[in-house]
């Protein structure tokens, strides 16, 4: 315990030294060491008195601190001795063998060596063991064994305690602990302690160190005070009263000579000092000294700055007719405000220049913003509106823009510059008296500012419309209303591009706005010049766009063909930013079948429209061969590959065909069967009669021209009343949106649209397309119909020539049932020729089908792929005249191939068509 007590006291010594050092650094004269310090202390100055007082305080604090450390060390040593003694006594008393040894025949022999070892290990001076009667059984002093110990009665009674013991054999700090057996009965006592002599010896050894630390702290504080005193002497440079007075006079002269106002106020707001410049700038009276700053009428902001305790830097305030830059700093010790020092600079002229620079910067910023906001679209009217929107209200209260009609149509500007159409009007208020957008504006009076601007080719300024008379000449009543509304200033600027007048821009200012100045005219001319370029670009684009749209619409179907299989509606919407290559077509096929086509050409513009026309023409030509959808797309793909291959070796600048998409579908109204094939195109949507919308899974091949993949045909069976919706990607794709969102929107619109194709087209155009589509869109909606089963007659014909006559007779009866007796002869002739050719030159099975719709169709199919051809037979030939007769009686005829075999068909018109002269035909055949 004495060892721990010594460590605590050693660590506790530095704090008083640190405190003494801190206090010793306060200003004061240095100690009387050397002649200079002696000379300083010989004068009864305040610095010397502060130094002596500081040294005395430090000395007292060091002494008190040293005494406190000594007492604290003694107290800590005693407490440590108690704790160590108690721990040693409890450890020995509670050891398992102590109680047994006390009951043994010779406890001293057992406990004496154990107590000695335990005392040495625990760092205590003694461990004494007593029996239950207080007699010593083991003790470091063997002469005391057998004697009775003092003051252990409480321990014999079972109480553990510590105490400062005074008596025999020595004064000590001891702990007394009872020893109990298993039944908690006291069988002995253990006493352990540390003698007072040892504690005092430890403290005596620490005392010199404490005194040395105190002396060191005192010396350090004295040295610090001396250093501070010497620093003060150096800063004053040893000046006497005369020198200090002269220095004050110099400072005062400088203070009043500088061209910056200096004002010093006290903590109560009274003026302590004001130089000449401050008096001039603030217009202070002669008796300003000792008066409050609130009495000078400086204004609330300036007064607040001079009375505030917060510093300010370059705060610009108005005092009278001057703008002053004010800097303030508080005066006070330790941050406590005891006054304020303020300086003033006259920045009136600088502020004027800064204001002009700010105005110029604002105008440049305005023109930059105008450059980014005008011409965002290639639309003439929208560009004119953007010009008006930019100028109001930053440039004017009302802006009107008039353009030539030829410019609005996208044509070259004409020389008729005195007749313009008001295209845009923007105002900051409401209820203006000016002519509305759409009116024709005529400039017929030569003295008006508008006509003068057109004649000169530059802006004309009318700063005050109240005093000007020439602008009223054309419309005196309108001028009067404008003045009553509050319009008072005008700038008219001709809108010119490439040296040609496109229109006129008028800037008007009304009540609450200042009149136009010459600087505003320059800004207005620059603004209109930038807008003129954008409007001219939009005009040129409009012309090209209109030309491309016209070309594209001329290449699209001008009307839907008449047919009975489908009820069809269509839409085409060109993109706002440019014409694309989307297209559609409806192609009637033999047998009342109908082909539906949609496609999309890569790119935009005039070239895309031309390319679309080439592709549509190719599809029309291939469809005349009555090919299956996959075969037609295969031929189309080969054609695209050849054309693009040829274009790479020429200077042709047409858009490439490769990458175009196409969907080709053929619908048969007899059985509701629909065959579809697609090349890189989106699948169509099918709306069932109950309104269910599906997107069927159909085979997909790469876009046209890519090659390397075969085309496949998908099959659909469409109930009557179903809607087949074919579309291009412009209907469902928008920038910044996933195509799945567009497909979901399409599905929801189709589910809610009306049942007719026209209603469906209208809903899709309104609900799925954005306001300004970035891509063109083509849409084709077809509602299915089925041919009445009573108008379809089918016969399976045996592969025998004798069956021809029977089939011909059955066909005649069918025609009679349909009320077509007048067509019996021609139909039987056509059927006889076609059926005879099938039996003679074809292969089984042979089938005949008659279809009645807008026309009468006769179809003969067989299992052979050999196609007959029309030829003129020689006079010596026995045959070869059958197809010639068929071509004369039929409106059209042809051959189409099926999965197995072919079908030869002939179509006859119904109604008042005249049939050929039979006798003349036979005479011609006989030649």
Automatic annotation (TrEMBL):
Region (Disordered): 1-37
Topology class, membrane: Multi-pass membrane protein
Transmembrane segments: 46-71
CDD domains documented for this protein: HATPase_RsbW-like
Protein name from the UniProt record: SpoIIE family protein phosphatase
Domain PPM-type phosphatase: 563-784
Basic residues bias locations: 1-11
Domain named GAF: residues: 379-545
Top-level division of the source organism's lineage: Bacteria
Subcellular location field: Cell membrane
Pfam families: GAF_2, HATPase_c_2, sCache_3_2, SpoIIE
Keywords: ATP-binding, Cell membrane, Hydrolase, Kinase, Membrane, Nucleotide-binding, Phosphoprotein, Transferase, Transmembrane, Transmembrane helix, Two-component regulatory system
């Amino acid at each position: 315990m004495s060892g721990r007590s010594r460590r605590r006291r050693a660590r506790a010594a530095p704090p008083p030294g640190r405190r003494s050092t801190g206090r010793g650094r306060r200003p004061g004269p240095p100690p009387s060491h050397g002649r200079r310090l002696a000379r300083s202390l010989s004068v009864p100055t305040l610095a010397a008195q502060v130094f002596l007082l500081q040294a005395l305080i430090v000395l007292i604090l060091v002494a008190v601190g040293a005494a406190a450390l000594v007492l604290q060390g003694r107290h800590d040593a005693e407490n440590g001795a108690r704790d160590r003694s108690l721990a040693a006594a409890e450890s020995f008393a509670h050891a398992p063998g102590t109680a047994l040894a006390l009951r043994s025949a010779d406890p001293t022999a057992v406990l004496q060596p154990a107590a000695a070892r335990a005392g040495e290990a625990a760092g205590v001076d003694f461990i004494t063991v007593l029996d239950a009667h207080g007699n010593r059984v083991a003790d470091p002093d063997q002469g005391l064994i057998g004697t009775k110990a003092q003051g252990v009665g409480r321990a014999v009674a079972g109480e553990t305690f510590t105490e400062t013991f005074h008596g025999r054999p020595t004064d000590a700090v001891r702990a007394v602990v009872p020893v109990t057996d298993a039944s908690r009965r006291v069988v002995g006592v253990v006493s352990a302690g540390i003698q007072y002599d040892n504690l005092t010896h430890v403290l005596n050894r620490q005392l010199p160190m404490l005194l040395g630390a105190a002396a060191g702290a005192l010396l350090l504080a004295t040295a610090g005070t001396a250093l501070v005193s010497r620093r003060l002497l150096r800063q004053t440079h040893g000046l006497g009263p005369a020198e200090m007075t002269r220095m004050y006079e110099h400072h005062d002269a400088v203070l009043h000579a500088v061209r910056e106002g200096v004002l010093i106020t006290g903590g109560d707001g009274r003026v302590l000092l004001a130089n000449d410049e401050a008096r001039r700038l603030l217009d202070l009276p002669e008796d300003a000294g000792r008066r409050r700053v609130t009495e000078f009428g400086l204004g609330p902001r300036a007064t607040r700055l001079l009375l505030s305790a917060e510093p300010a830097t370059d705060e610009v305030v108005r005092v009278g007719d001057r703008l002053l830059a004010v800097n303030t700093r508080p005066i006070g010790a330790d941050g406590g405000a005891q006054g304020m020092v303020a300086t003033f600079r006259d920045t009136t002229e600088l502020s004027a220049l800064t204001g002009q620079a700010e105005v110029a910067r604002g105008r440049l910023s305005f023109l930059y913003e105008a450059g980014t906001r005008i011409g965002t679209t290639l639309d003439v009217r929208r560009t004119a509106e953007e010009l008006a929107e930019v100028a109001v209200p930053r440039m004017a209260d009302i802006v009107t823009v008039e353009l030539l009609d030829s410019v609005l149509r996208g044509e070259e500007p004409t020389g008729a510059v005195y007749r313009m159409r008001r295209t845009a009007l923007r105002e900051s208020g409401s209820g203006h008296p000016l002519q509305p957008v759409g009116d024709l504006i005529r400039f017929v009076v030569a003295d008006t500012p508008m006509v003068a601007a057109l004649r000169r080719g530059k802006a004309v300024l009318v700063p005050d419309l109240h005093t000007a008379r020439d602008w009223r000449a054309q419309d005196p009543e309108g001028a009067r209303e404008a003045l009553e509304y509050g319009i008072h200033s005008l700038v008219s600027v001709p809108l010119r591009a490439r040296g040609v007048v496109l229109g006129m821009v008028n800037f008007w200012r009304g009540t609450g706005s200042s009149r136009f100045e010459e600087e505003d005219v320059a800004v207005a001319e620059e603004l209109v010049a930038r807008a003129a370029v954008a409007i001219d670009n939009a005009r040129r684009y409009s012309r090209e766009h209109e030309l491309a749209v016209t070309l594209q619409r001329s290449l699209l179907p001008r009307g839907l063909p008449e047919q009975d299989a489908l009820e069809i509606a269509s839409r085409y919407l060109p993109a706002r930013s440019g014409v694309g290559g989307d297209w559609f077509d409806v192609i009637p096929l033999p047998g009342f079948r109908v082909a539906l086509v949609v496609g999309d050409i890569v790119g935009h513009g005039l070239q895309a429209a031309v390319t679309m026309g080439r592709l549509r023409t190719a599809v029309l030509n291939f469809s005349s061969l009555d090919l299956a959808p996959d075969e037609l797309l295969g031929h189309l793909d080969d054609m695209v590959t050849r054309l693009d291959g040829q274009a790479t070796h020429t200077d042709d600048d047409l858009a490439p065909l490769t990458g175009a998409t196409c969907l080709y579908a053929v619908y048969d109204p007899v059985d509701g069967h629909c065959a579809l094939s697609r090349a890189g195109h989106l699948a169509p949507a099918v709306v069932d009669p109950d309104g269910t919308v599906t997107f069927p899974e159909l085979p997909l091949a790469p876009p046209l021209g890519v090659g390397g993949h075969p085309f496949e045909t998908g099959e659909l069976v469409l109930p009557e009343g179903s809607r087949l919706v074919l579309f291009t990607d412009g209907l469902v794709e928008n920038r910044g949106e996933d195509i799945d969102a567009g497909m979901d929107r399409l599905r929801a619109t189709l589910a809610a649209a009306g049942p007719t194709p026209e209603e469906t087209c209208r809903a899709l155009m309104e609900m799925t397309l954005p306001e300004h589509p970035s891509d063109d869109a083509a849409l084709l909606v077809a509602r299915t119909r089925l041919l009445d089963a009573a108008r379809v007659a089918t016969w399976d014909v045996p592969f025998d020539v004798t069956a021809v006559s029977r089939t011909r007779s059955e066909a005649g009866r069918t025609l009679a049932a349909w009320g077509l007796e007048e067509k019996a002869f021609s139909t039987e002739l056509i059927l006889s020729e076609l059926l005879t050719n099938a039996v003679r030159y074809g292969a089984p099975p042979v089938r005949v089908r008659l279809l009645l719709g807008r026309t009468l169709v006769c179809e003969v199919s067989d299992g052979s792929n050999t196609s007959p051809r029309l030829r003129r037979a020689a006079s010596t030939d026995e045959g070869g005249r059958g197809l010639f007769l068929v071509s004369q009686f039929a409106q059209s005829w042809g051959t189409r191939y099926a999965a197995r075999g072919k079908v030869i068909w002939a179509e006859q018109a119904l109604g008042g068509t005249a049939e050929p002269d039979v006798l003349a035909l036979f005479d011609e055949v006989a030649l």
